[in-house]
Known about the structure:
single chain, alpha+beta, Jelly Rolls, Arc Repressor Mutant, subunit A, 2 domains, five-stranded antiparallel beta sheet, four-stranded antiparallel beta sheet, 7 helices, elongated
Amino acid sequence: xxxxxxxxxxxxxxxxxxxxxxxxxxxxxxxxxxxxxxxxxxxxxxxxxxxxxxxxxxxxxxxxxxxxxxxxxxxxxxxxxxxxxxxxxxxxxxxxxxxxxxxxxxxxxxxxxxxxxxxxxxxxxxxxxxxxxxxxxxxxxxxxxxxxxxxxxxxxxxxxxxxxxxxxxxxxxxxxxxxxxxxxxxxxxxxxxxxxxxxxxxxxxxxxxxxxxxxxxxxxxxxxxxxxxxx
Length: 231
């Protein structure tokens, strides 16, 4: 973990979270006075499940994964977050602790903002508070939908869902560098690594999706969507 030497104001940063656009210049300046920037290498823990939530994290570069740690059982990869995402936990309204771990999926840069100043912004700026809570609600609905798919879909359908998520929400391209390894894809799909490899081979044999090392290519998007729907 390395501290960044570059300094900038929150109001000037083009990478800031969209939620901050509801804040005034004075409020942005106050946030700047109560934050610090840090860089993380791939695989480093940004926030640990169960640790005190004294800050919220705004991802500015790279990708991070939210992981639900389950002692004695495989961890569950909840989702992947993109730059400008404000990473929070329901614990900020309950026990002030992280209820999942945040881990760098690639080399990342993140901004840590004091929880006390965020709560102060809630009181000063109702639009910010409304947008903040809406964002948490949207993320919760997304996770509910994903868990429903994991429970009701077969393994091929789950893998298809995962690939489509990467296509539409993360990379926005039919060809992309796969930053998730097979173990992480298994954690995301609630499967074993061996099952993931078997299904990926089947998709490649049917000319639907090809993953060679870290290079991914969707060969038949229509067929992949059909597998996701019917899985």
